[in-house]
Design brief:
The complex is a heterodimer of chains A (118) and B (107).
Chain A (H helix, E strand, L loop, with lengths): L2 E5 L2 E3 L5 E8 L7 E7 L5 E7 L6 E3 L7 E6 L4 E6 L8 E8 L7 E2 L3 E5 L2
Parallel strand pairs in A: 2-11
Antiparallel strand pairs in A: 1-3, 3-8, 4-5, 4-9, 5-6, 7-8, 9-10, 9-11
Chain B lengths: L3 E4 L2 E4 L5 E7 L7 E6 L6 E5 L3 E2 L7 E6 L2 E6 L9 E6 L11 E5 L1
Parallel strand pairs in B: 2-10
Antiparallel strand pairs in B: 1-3, 3-8, 4-5, 4-9, 5-6, 7-8, 9-10
The chains are: A mainly beta (118), B mainly beta (107).
Chain lengths: 118, 107
């Protein structure tokens, strides 16, 4: 069974940093691109970032470029999102999701909430 | 970035109704369109990809159609478990943008 479990969310002050993790199981992690999608409270889905199956290629939404870094550890079957210079508008539930580079996101984690507030 | 505009943003319907949700792209995206269903407090679930291909396990009352810039999601006979928010997503170019969502509520 495919499982994606996010962790690392919490309360952080504006300007602060946080690292999200997504532990993957039930599939060959190294065969899939992995994505982060976020959802602000009461709002729609916003695409954040993707990393290719081998980690060589990444993409970031303009809203997070230069502040967030996506990475993966194949030995731990884990996806990461390092978030820095956090702003109030980054407050959201962050989902990790599985998908090939040009394919839909077929499995999603349950999400982890990031709250940015002083 | 490709913009996706969903309409309506809110829809009130009864069990058994046939409903249609539209997703319009700001430029042509060929057949690179997917639909997701999200229930409150839950992660989105993939329903349809490549415009009209049902994800495994999705009931046949769901269907998708369209091409180019205009796409539709149809539920032929609304069931109680279908009351949720629906999002389209384009997979033609990065960022893989989502539509604003359509919330389907019980009339």
């Amino acid at each position: 069974e495919v499982q994606l479990v996010e962790s690392g969310g919490g309360l952080v002050q504006p300007g602060g940093s946080l690292r999200l993790s997504c532990a993957a199981s039930g599939f060959t992690f190294s065969s899939y691109a992995m994505h982060w999608v976020r959802q602000a409270p009461g709002k729609g889905l916003e695409y954040v970032s993707v990393i290719s199956s081998n980690g060589d290629s990444t993409y970031y939404a303009n809203s997070v470029k230069g502040r967030f870094t996506i990475s993966r550890d194949k030995s731990k079957n884990t996806l990461y999102l390092q978030m820095g210079s956090l702003r109030a508008e980054d407050m959201a539930v962050y989902y990790c999701a599985r998908g090939l580079w040009w394919e839909p996101l077929d499995y999603w984690g349950q999400g982890t909430l990031v709250t940015v507030s002083s | 970035d490709i913009q996706l505009t969903q309409s309506p943003s809110f829809l009130s319907a009864s069990v058994g109704d046939r409903i249609t949700i539209t997703c319009r792209a700001s430029q042509g995206i060929s057949s690179y369109l997917a639909w997701y269903q999200q229930k409150p407090g839950k992660a989105p679930k993939l329903l349809i990809y490549s415009v009209s291909t049902l994800q495994s396990g999705v009931p046949s009352r769901f269907s998708g159609s369209g091409s180019g810039t205009e796409f539709t999601l149809t539920i032929s006979s609304l069931q109680p478990e279908d009351f949720a928010t629906y999002y389209c997503q384009q997979l033609n170019s990065y960022p893989l943008t989502f539509g604003g969502g359509t919330k389907v509520e019980i009339k």
